[in-house]
């Protein structure tokens, strides 16, 4: 099999630690920080799927909203779920929500990111992000993590207004790099994302950071690892 | 506004209590029954969305699998998540999974179901189910709950191989009843389902059985209640 020529990384959960908001969440909602971070993240993903599933067949994706807005909506939901008082008095919680959203703009990057991206660049491999995030949000996250010089492409699904795992979202990777899906390795820490990308036809690495089972839908990722370094094995 | 002529109910969570498996789950997985039931249910819904989102643009819905199979896959995932030993020795857990799946076939019905369906029938309203479940699974659940005589239609998304909230799934309700979406009330305990149906154009009742916030995506259901009886208010 031909060696791949590019590696595209999912951003949220893969390069950036979406649970790094947990500490602030715990300060703002004592005893409930971990739950808030989990509900927030789950709802954020759920909203991407809800709008994309509901948009199908309808012209112009009427329910699509950029990832930043869905992230905000998901946070509002999460706060209202764990703090019922927020349902009738949202004003009292707005400042906390704003603090958490600001933190989300500058998520921690995982420690091995730079080293892996540098190793790929030194071998002449094309690198990029392929994310549900919209361009502005991704730009801030990439600069904030000091990764600008190491990424050839920062690709957002916003151009097609359809979230992963819609095939049109994954197809943005082919379109922007000018490569075929067989020439691209897609890396994600999200099992559902690794699955969707595998279905699409990318070679995939699932970075199982939290020792979870893979999705039980019959299609394994090409490779599985516990951190990003394993992506280099595609080029040995 | 014209009075509606039909009421279509979601099945799982709305007429049938998906958490009624919790007691058996607690016996089989002591101390973890509630968590297992929650992960199982969340994953089941997640899988419906994953396959439908990934199928879009691809001919013939290649990733679609009937709801019973997705329910089984979700249970396998849930057991492997909470019992890591099951990942390497699934055989030791297979009998427990089978017991839980058998229980799922005969979920408890909510107590007000019969009374509300009878009241609708006595007013000449068309009644039905519009569910992600496939026909066989729905047939068993309906008979098991003694609701056969009270439902004019048992409609499954299986005919279009697309899960809610895909508009084609909701459109099955119009197609089978021969009514327009404006003439139909759709009832669901699942906030996402009430939202999808509202976007589609049904009049909707969200039965908020668990005192949760509604989805924060800008579109409220037509009505909200804590049990099914409120559906009669559409006909007052």
Automatic annotation (TrEMBL), chains A, B:
Organism: Hydrogenophaga pseudoflava (Pseudomonas carboxydoflava)
Listed NCBIfam families: HAD-SF-IA-v2 (TIGR01493), HAD_type_II (TIGR01428)
PANTHER family: HALOACID DEHALOGENASE, TYPE II (AFU_ORTHOLOGUE AFUA_2G07750)-RELATED (PTHR43316:SF3), HYDROLASE, HALOACID DELAHOGENASE-RELATED (PTHR43316)
Role summary: Catalyzes the hydrolytic dehalogenation of small (S)-2-haloalkanoic acids to yield the corresponding (R)-2-hydroxyalkanoic acids.
Regions crossing the membrane: none
Keywords for this protein: Hydrolase
Principal EC category: hydrolase
SUPFAM superfamilies referenced in this protein's UniProt entry, alphabetically: HAD-like (SSF56784)
Catalysed transformations (reactions): an (S)-2-haloacid + H2O = a (2R)-2-hydroxycarboxylate + a halide anion + H(+)
Protein name: (S)-2-haloacid dehalogenase
EC number: 3.8.1.2
Highest taxon of the lineage: Bacteria
Pfam families: Hydrolase
GO terms of molecular function: (S)-2-haloacid dehalogenase activity
Sequence similarity: Belongs to the HAD-like hydrolase superfamily. S-2-haloalkanoic acid dehalogenase family.
